[in-house]
Write a structure and sequence with these properties.
Number of strands of chain B: 5
Helix content of chain B: 10-25%
CATH topology of the largest domain in chain A: Rossmann fold
Oligomer: heterodimer
Structural class of chain A: alpha/beta
Number of strands of chain A: 17
Order of helices and strands of chain B: EEHEEE
CATH class of chain B: Alpha Beta
Largest sheet of chain B: 5 strands, mixed
Strand order of the largest sheet of chain A: 8-7-6-5-4-1-2-3-17
CATH topology of chain B: Ubiquitin-like (UB roll)
CATH superfamily of chain B: Phosphatidylinositol 3-kinase Catalytic Subunit, Chain A, domain 1
Radius of gyration of chain B: 12 Å
Order of helices and strands of chain A: HHEHEHHEHHEHEEHHEEEHEEEEEEEE
Distance between the termini of chain B: 44 Å
Chain lengths: 417, 85
């Protein structure tokens, strides 16, 4: 036995039983990078499973705080967390405490994954596990995974039942967006105004009936598939497993029917029409870099004469990532200066005031998502434009297009516990 | 105009079967789903999909029954789309 094997045996001793499986590779799991988006009922179960099987690098994203209703459905939360703890942070701390692998790294990001989590994060992962509760976030995760060519496994629950969908990087298979029709698209954009894409302030989120048991079952299926991905096993994409906890066999008339459905590819899919990131040049900067400095860097790196920064074109929410300059009443010209990312503009910011006699309640936004070196915004930082660290932007000069990632280190985004 | 006969639409959730003696083959899958929702009392806001039992392949809502390969005596299975996590 080599020294390395001896060390392996010591650190991997807690996993002795699963290592009896002939193809199981504990070291591979220990080196895997897994992103869990959503730390609610499903996310808690998934995180617990990932820790227990020994996934070595776990990243958690959620924007919420722990609520009393989470306590009965979330294995990682305690009474004292309710009303004050960030879900992502609390989950990260508990996962870290329970993780049997002593060198495990667990990190969290508390924030809005749709607008505040850079697409480059997805490039660093082996697999993404979706434990989300809304269509908007699913659409964006799907787009990021598609462009970064990473598999993602989407869980969802309802009463005693649930589903797990597998999305891989194969173009010939369905992605989440393929199944998003007009109604779901409207639902996804519910928190944005139709007219200008600004954030509505008066939206009530609905609560769905779910159980602890269905989340445990669905999370187990998700985790099991993630284990396969981390081992390099091919899992077929564009498929959805339905779990029916009411009947345990949905087709009582014919038990031979499987609960796996092959989803159909939508030829008009917005996501399938997007190119992949492919080669991405990583600039060793942060989003405190100014637009001017970024464009100078790009000119030097790519030999471009007139580089132009293009951002947020693949964004699936509202009208994409944009920088809002002004809001203007279309009938009177009454104007309000904004100078902030459009996703930070609220409907109340662009509501036509009483002194403006124009028509309609909402003003129109003037926005941009392309800037060159002649822009008046050269001194603005990327953060001012709403571009988060590790996001991926496009630098364009004529026919030349390059994807650039803002920074490399995941520590720019995640806090390690 | 082709008529498809003796279809069965089965609900994945409760296993309940809804027979359709005759249907126009040019009917879009989305129209069939809307009619099914109305027939069995599924709220219009509930997203549902449908697959062919014999292939387990989901049928695109934008194509007609005929173009989706639905034939006489087929069984279609309606599945719910869940969003909670």
């Amino acid at each position: 036995m080599t020294i390395e094997n001896t060390l392996d045996n010591a650190q991997f001793e807690p996993f002795a039983r699963q290592r009896l499986i002939e193809w199981w590779d504990q070291r591979r799991l220990a080196e895997s990078q897994v992103l869990v988006v959503g730390a609610g009922a499903l996310g808690n179960e998934v995180l617990k499973n990932l820790a227990l099987v020994g996934v070595g690098n776990i990243y958690i994203v959620d924007f919420d705080i722990v609520e009393p209703s989470n306590l009965s459905r979330s294995v990682l939360f305690r009474i004292g967390d309710a009303g004050q703890g960030y879900k992502a942070e609390v989950a990260a701390r508990r996962v870290s405490q329970m993780h049997p692998y002593r060198y495990a790294q667990v990190a969290y990001f508390h924030g809005d994954l749709v607008w505040e989590l850079g697409a480059g994060v997805y490039r660093a992962m082996d697999v993404v596990l979706g434990c989300l509760d809304n269509v908007e976030a699913r659409r964006f995760v799907n787009m990021c995974c598609w462009k970064a060519e990473k598999p993602w496994i989407d869980g969802a629950i309802h009463k005693l039942s649930g589903s797990v969908a597998f999305y891989t990087t194969e173009t010939a298979t369905a992605c989440y967006e393929c199944g998003v029709g007009e109604r779901l698209r409207m639902l996804a954009n519910e928190r944005y105004s139709c007219l200008s894409g600004v954030v509505r302030t008066n939206i009530q989120a609905g609560n769905e009936p779910t159980t602890q048991t269905s989340s445990a079952i669905v999370a187990a299926i998700q985790t099991q598939e993630a284990i396969k991905v981390c081992h390099g096993m091919a899992i077929p994409g564009g498929r959805k497993v339905y779990y029916n906890g009411l009947l345990h066999n949905f087709d009582v008339a014919d038990p031979s029917v499987t609960s796996v459905t092959e989803m159909s590819v939508n030829p008009a899919c917005f996501c399938h029409a997007e190119d992949r990131f492919g080669h991405v040049t990583v600039f060793n900067i942060t989003n405190t870099c100014t637009v001017g400095d970024l464009l100078d860097l790009a000119a030097q790196e790519f030999g471009m004469d007139n580089p132009e920064l293009v951002f947020g074109t693949f964004h699936t929410s509202a009208q994409g990532r944009r920088f809002a300059i002004t809001a203007m009443c279309p009938s009177t010209g009454y104007t309000v200066e904004l100078y902030k990312p459009a996703h930070q503009v609220r409907d109340v910011d662009v509501t036509r005031p009483g002194e403006c006699p124009g028509e309609g309640p909402e003003m129109r936004l003037r926005t941009l998502n392309r800037l060159d070196r002649s822009t008046e915004f050269c001194g603005y930082t990327l953060g001012d434009l709403g571009i988060p660290n590790l996001d991926i932007v496009k630098i364009v000069d004529g026919l030349q297009e390059r994807y650039v990632q803002i920074g490399q280190n995941l520590q720019l985004v995640f806090r390690y516990v | 105009m082709a008529t498809i006969r003796n279809l069965t639409v089965r609900n994945q959730v409760d296993g309940r079967a809804t027979p359709i003696p005759e249907v126009d083959g040019e009917l879009l899958i989305s129209e069939l789903l809307d009619a099914y929702k109305a027939e069995v009392g599924i709220p219009p806001s509930q997203e549902i999909t449908i697959k062919k039992k014999s292939t387990n392949k989901q049928l695109s809502p934008k194509v007609s029954l005929e173009d989706a390969g639905v034939r006489d005596n087929d069984t279609l299975i309606v599945e719910m789309s869940y969003t909670a996590g």
